[in-house]
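Allow me, if you will, to draw on your knowledge of protein folds for a short while. The matter concerns a single protein, recorded as an amino acid sequence and a row of backbone structure tokens. Could you please explain, in whatever detail you think fit, how the structure tokens follow from the sequence? I remain grateful for any guidance, and I place the record below:

…
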Amino acid sequence: GERLPNDRFGRCAAEKLAKAQRARKHKRHIAKLHAKVANARADFQHKLALDLVRRFDYIAVGNVSAVKLARIRMAKSVYDASWSSFRNKLRYKAIVHGATFEEVDESGSTQSCSACGSKDSTTRPKGIAGLRIREWACSDCGVEHDRDINAALNILRCGRASPGVGIL
């Protein structure tokens, strides 16, 4: 009989294996958390889209590009809101419930006055720096505007039908 060395491969690898298994467990846990967030977002979007198509016969939505917005500092917020997913759900539910859904060119919708239509206001928000300006007054007619509500009214006006909702 000859004595053979036992390098104990299992014991040497046990620590690395335990660490790897913990990492795998964490990956599964993190994946579950991501799935939970995605499911909650999808549920909220389905409920909101259904509520909107039940209340309005006409829905106008700005054709905002989430990909372009994600290139600037708002990327995390844009991806979290999942705009294109919501737009698709809204379009689908509008078709199913017989509502009219229209995408409208939203360029300049925050900059023109929804009351008088003026674009020459010196106080209007401009460019990326203008994103910080949430409220402004038209220099022509003097009406005070909330940036998002003004844009929604302009998007609705660009659409074809009058009874409806402009999505902020």
